[in-house]
Write a structure and sequence with these properties.
Layout (H helix, E strand, L loop, with lengths): L6 E3 L5 E4 L20 E6 L12 E6 L10 E2 L19 E3 L15 E9 L4 E10 L6 E5 L3 E8 L2 E5 L2 E5 L3 E5 L5 E5 L4 E8 L24 E3 L7 E10 L2 E9 L4 E6 L4 E4 L20 E6 L6 E8 L2 E3 L16 E9 L13 E4 L9 H9 L5 E3 L2 E8 L4 E2 L1 H5 L23
Parallel strand pairs: 9-17
Antiparallel strand pairs: 1-16, 2-19, 3-4, 4-19, 5-18, 6-25, 7-8, 7-28, 8-15, 10-13, 10-15, 11-12, 11-14, 13-20, 17-18, 21-22, 22-27, 23-26, 24-25, 24-27
C-alpha cells in the first residue's frame, strides 16, 4: 500500500523529528523559551531511574501543554469499562465467531468490546483483549489509555491513526502499538474497519532475545516504523477520553491535543508489517516450540517468563520428516488466545474464522480436531508451503477471564468442544 506519510525506522532507537525547521532545541531539552512559542513537555514510559537501556522517555514540543483541559468526569455506557466482579474464570475451551458489522454509526472507541482480561492495571500486570468494529471517524474525540499500551491488529479495512507523534496508516497484515498515555484518533480509509486489540498492562513490548538463533531472524528492528512529527493547530470543543483503572473518563478541551510540532526520544507509537517476519522452523524432525514465532514480548522480573507474548503463525515451509506436522496436542502453563487475520489455520478443519478467536487457558488441553489429526498421521511428508494463512496468539502467564460480553454474545460458539469428539482411536496392543 502506498504511504502518504513518512516514517523513521529502527526499534528501540533514539529518534528525533520536527514538522517545522529548528523546532527542536539544541543542547537543552526544556529551554526557557522554545522556538515558535512552543511548550516543552516530557512523556515518561518508565521510572526516571531505570537503567539507560530500559529508560523510556520522549520530549514533546507542543502548542499547548497536555494539562490544558477541564476536569475528567466518569463516562458511562461504554463497553471498555469492566467490572472485575463480572469476569468469569473457567477451564473450558472457548471459541468465538467474528462480530457482526455495526448496524448504526459508531466510531473506533465506541465500537470496542472487551472480550477477556487478566491481571490488574493498578499493579501493571496482565492484559485485556478488545474487539473493534467501526464505520465512522472519531471526529472531535481523542483517546488514551493510562492502563496500558495498545497493540492493534486489523483484519478488515484500512485506517489512519492520528497520534500526538504523527500519523500512521494501518492495513490488515500490519500491526501498530500505541504506548500507554499517548493520545490518538482513528479515521477510516475503508467504510468498515474490524480487528483485535491487546491492551498490555505490564512492561512495554520489546523484541525477544534470539539466543541460539544468533543475530538475525524473527522480527528485524529495522522494519519497525515510527511516525514523523505532524501537528494540528485547531480550536473548538474537543473530548479527551481516558481509560484509567478499567474505567472510562472524559474531559473537554478547547484545543485539539494533536499539536506536537517536534519530538525526540525512544517512547513513541510504531507500526510493523507482519509479512516481513523471518520465520525460523525445523528442517529435520519434531516442532520448535511456538515461542519461535514471537514478534513482541512484555517481560517480567523472571527471566524467560513473559507477562504477554505476541506470536504469529504466518506462511512458512513445512519440511520436517517423521513428524506429526499439525500443532501437537498439549497442555500449557501459559494461557492462549488465538485470532485469525486471513486464510485458514492448519490446526482446525473448520470453524476458526478471520475475526474470530479461541481461548485455551492454563492447563486446558487443546490441539487439532479429529480430521486434521488423522490427516497429519497418514499424509506423505513431502516439503510443502503453508500458504494463505496468518494467525496470531496473545499468550499470557496469567489465566484469561471472560467478560460478561464474552459469555453472552451470540458470537460464542456453543459446540466448540465437538471438534475433538471424533478423534479416531488407533490403539492396538499387537502393533
Amino acid at each position: 500500500m502506498s504511504e502518504e506519510f513518512q516514517y523513521q525506522s529502527g526499534f528501540g532507537g533514539y529518534l528525533q523529528t520536527e514538522a517545522l525547521p529548528n523546532a527542536l532545541p539544541h543542547g537543552q531539552n526544556s529551554p526557557q523559551k522554545p522556538a515558535y512559542g512552543l511548550y516543552a513537555e516530557q512523556l515518561s514510559g518508565s521510572a526516571f531511574t531505570r537503567p539507560r537501556s530500559h529508560n523510556l522517555r520522549t520530549w514533546l514540543y507542543r502548542i499547548l501543554p497536555s494539562v490544558s483541559h477541564l476536569s475528567f468526569q466518569p463516562l458511562k455506557n461504554m463497553t471498555l469499562a469492566q467490572d472485575s466482579n463480572q469476569l468469569y474464570a473457567i477451564p473450558n475451551q472457548l471459541r468465538w465467531d467474528p462480530l457482526a458489522d455495526p448496524t448504526q454509526k459508531q466510531s473506533f472507541i465506541a465500537g470496542c468490546q472487551t472480550l477477556i482480561q487478566n491481571g490488574n492495571p493498578l499493579v501493571q500486570e496482565g492484559a485485556a483483549i478488545h474487539l473493534y468494529t467501526a464505520n465512522e471517524n472519531m471526529n472531535d474525540d481523542f483517546f488514551y489509555s493510562a492502563d496500558g499500551e495498545w497493540l492493534i491488529v486489523p483484519y478488515l479495512g484500512r485506517l489512519t491513526l492520528k497520534t500526538e507523534f504523527g500519523i500512521i496508516t494501518l492495513a490488515p497484515s500490519e500491526i501498530a502499538v500505541i504506548p500507554r498515555g499517548v493520545k490518538f484518533q482513528v479515521e477510516l480509509i475503508d467504510p468498515i474497519i474490524k480487528g483485535y486489540i491487546c491492551e498490555n498492562f505490564g512492561a512495554p513490548f520489546g523484541l525477544p532475545d534470539l539466543g541460539p538463533i544468533g543475530s538475525n531472524g524473527l522480527a528485524s528492528p529495522r522494519d519497525f516504523l515510527f511516525p514523523t512529527a505532524h501537528f494540528e493547530d485547531k480550536t473548538g470543543t474537543f473530548n479527551i477520553i481516558c481509560k484509567y483503572a478499567n474505567k472510562l473518563w472524559q474531559a473537554q478541551t478547547n484545543h485539539a491535543p494533536l499539536d506536537v510540532v517536534a519530538w525526540h526520544g525512544n517512547y513513541a507509537p510504531y507500526k510493523y508489517d507482519l509479512r516481513l517476519f523471518n520465520t525460523i522452523n525445523t528442517v529435520s524432525f519434531d516442532h520448535c516450540d511456538p515461542s519461535i514465532f514471537t514478534v513482541l514480548t512484555s517481560a517480567t522480573a523472571t527471566p524467560g517468563l513473559a507477562n504477554l507474548d505476541f506470536v504469529i503463525f504466518p506462511e512458512r515451509w513445512m519440511v520436517a520428516e517423521h513428524t506429526f506436522r499439525p500443532p501437537y496436542y498439549h497442555r500449557n502453563i501459559m494461557s492462549e488466545y488465538m485470532g485469525l487475520i486471513h486464510g485458514h489455520y492448519d490446526a482446525k478443519n473448520e470453524g476458526f474464522l478471520p475475526g474470530g478467536g479461541s481461548l485455551h487457558n492454563c492447563m486446558s488441553s487443546h490441539g487439532p480436531d479429529g480430521d486434521t489429526a488423522e490427516k497429519g498421521m497418514h499424509e506423505t511428508l513431502l516439503p510443502i508451503k503453508q500458504e494463505n494463512t496468518l494467525a496470531f496468539m496473545f499468550e499470557s502467564r496469567l489465566p484469561w477471564q471472560i467478560t460478561e460480553f464474552g459469555m453472552q454474545t451470540s458470537a460464542l460458539q456453543k459446540s466448540y468442544q465437538d471438534c475433538w469428539q471424533n478423534i479416531p482411536k488407533f490403539f492396538n496392543q499387537k502393533s
